[in-house]
Fold these 2 entries.
Entry 1:
Amino acid sequence: CPVPLSQAFPLPSLPRKQPTVLVVCGPAQNGAVGLVCARHLRIFDYEPTIFYPKRSLDPLYRDFTTQCEKMDIPFLSYLPTEVQLINDAYNAVVDAVLGAEAELGEGGGPCASILATLKHIRIPIVSLDVPSGWDVEAGSSGGISPDVLVSLMAPKQCARHFLGRQHFVAGRFVPYDVQKKFELNPPEYPGTECVVALRGPQ
């Protein structure tokens, strides 16, 4: 995982009065970001719960899972299809199901029912890098509609179509040669922050 994941989540996007967070993780890199996000939230006294139905066999991702278990972060065995149960139990959902590395067809199969549920919940959704179900360039084609987007390294083309309340980028760690190669033109990061807001609350 090239992303320093513990730096990749803007805690101010989740007010302290909203401590219960459901983190929904996919099997690939974005799911790993979600696992470390859950651990990061737990360190700062939030109450994350993880739904991780298709666990990766990658040793690094398995280590992330073990770390979460040792921090007593609960794992759900299934995601309720009755969205009101989710609305009542949690104050926010972190979408770490699919990311920029996902192929166009990956929104089907086991992810389809997850996305169908996330489309109908009423609590805020925070998507990591690319909202699940979105094309990385074209944007939404029936995917979810997150309230907050956290772009990793740099905003993807689809971020132009993001209409939610807040947009953050976590990319201070990107090496200068990579910035130059891809002409990333990173924003100014205040102080020692590793996350910067591109769009404030709306």
Note: The first strand starts at residue 20 and ends at 25.
Entry 2:
Amino acid sequence: EMSSPSLKTGAYILIGVGALTMLMGFLGCLGAVNEIRCLLGLYFTCLMVILITQVAAGLVIYFQKETLKEELSHIVGSLIENYDPLNEDERNLQDAWDYVQTQIACCGWTGAKDWENNAILINQSMTAYPCSCSNSSKDFQVDSGFCNLDTPVNGTATSAEWPVHEQGCMDGVEKWLKDNLGVILGVCTGVAVIELLGMILSISLCKNIHSEDYTKVPKS
């Protein structure tokens, strides 16, 4: 219920790249130590596949960002609507969302009003609010579950009366990405350069091994 085709595809890609990276490292070390050309060639191929995959993933994210944003909106909306601190089956996912709201200082996907769809808050006439959204100092030690309003008006309230952050997490995440764009691009570039260096070194080792094998061939 909490997934989407694009997110599943992304997860499978990350799992595949991780497994391929582990296998690649093992083959590269084995080929370099024992001077096995075929393993070095396989190491080069694995690096090239990983690099192409990373570039392809970046292009997909860039050109499909609106689709991904829409799917995330549905996922987060469903999570907020069914959020229940007593639900142990969804505890990890709910804790992850509480962490996002606490760290980014945001509330809901588009704003605190998203939480007005939560079944528990509806039953409490909105006299409680998500603690991870709070901008009040007294709630800083509580980062999950629901907190009660001090003075609800006539026993009912709205999200506008909650002491929570006004910024939605969608805007918060976009702002964080823009603020850290240089760091993200720098890390991606650094990883790509290391991969290219690995490809160059593997080709050089293969050529050296080939040259040594050629010199060892007895002349007739």
Note: The CA atoms of residues 207 and 213 lie 10 Å apart.
